[in-house]
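Q: For a teaching session next week I want to show students how multiple molecules come together into a single three-dimensional assembly. I've collected the sequence lines for a complex. Could you give me the predicted structure tokens for the whole thing so I can convert them for display?
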Amino acid sequence: MKVLLNHWYVVLQPQEVGRKPLTVERFGQPLVFWRGSDGQLHAQHDRCPHLGASLGAGQVVEDRLVCPFHGFRYDGDGRCRHAPALGKNTTPPKGLVLKTFMVREAHDLVWLWWGDPALASPDLPFFALLQQGWQHYTVSTQWPVHYTRAIENQLDVAHLPFVHRTTIGAGGRTLVEGPYVEADERGVRVWVSNHVDDGRTLRTQPQLAAAFQGHEPSLDLRFPGCWLLSISPVFKNFLAFVPVNERCTRYYLRSYFRFGPRWLARPLGWLISLSNRYILGQDRRVVITQTPADSGDAHHDQLTGADRAIAQFRRFHSLLLQRQASTLSPPLSRAISDAAEQQSSRS
Ligand code: FES
Ligand SMILES: [Fe+2]
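A: Of course. Below is the structure for the complete assembly, covering every listed component.
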């Protein structure tokens, strides 16, 4: 599956992985997660290098992942430490190595480095303002959509009065002022206000830039797929988009809040999550109908001024993809980026 390489991705929540191996699909690949006796988390390709069996049906014994087929035992670095058929006194062949991924547990999420381990960044694409002092409650769901469409849906500031007419889009505020958008290789930041269309003249981008200066963005997307919606100073929604495969994306939607007493946090979180689920369901009905699946192939989409955030996401997402292609084949990538530049100078 084509995704941005050399980034930290949210792949799971820590409590989803225990001592029992867990197989999940991420980036179009089967991955197996398990914990050693000290709780340390390991992430490996879920394909035994012996005869290709899934290790998710195996077990963890003495800090080794044991294949259910012939009992070969792999350590957290992926080396086969014991092949029972060869006996205790034989060192397993060197080729029996399980591909192993770098993982970190931070901010109550599991992050996996997808790309070259030598290039791993010390920084996670998380939001500094969420690091302390919040209660949070998470809902997860999986949609049959490509991750680009999933992300763009959450950068779309024009769909609210239609898709969410009965919830967060009530009031008929169809007129989109802005959005004012700043974007770069780290992500996309969006400032917007929606109004009832009373015939007013929309402010220009420089006027909006001046008006929003010093304000937190309404929406903040960090590549490859962490998103923040600022609802109020005490209430934020965070969403991690997890590429499962070309046709499927997993969502971890987490509300962060700091109101109400601590003992009320769980019931409050649960109530908020009910509403989040309902609102996401409204999006889902429409997003699953979009074609083509990958917005990178949607050359016929006619974006308008209200879609600036989506346009900027596409621009930088494709720029990052082109750049990684250039590390593989410089002449090909030069041709792609020349074509992209011509395209952007035309638009
Ligand atoms: S397939 Fe895993 S030990 Fe044989
Ligand atoms: Fe929506």
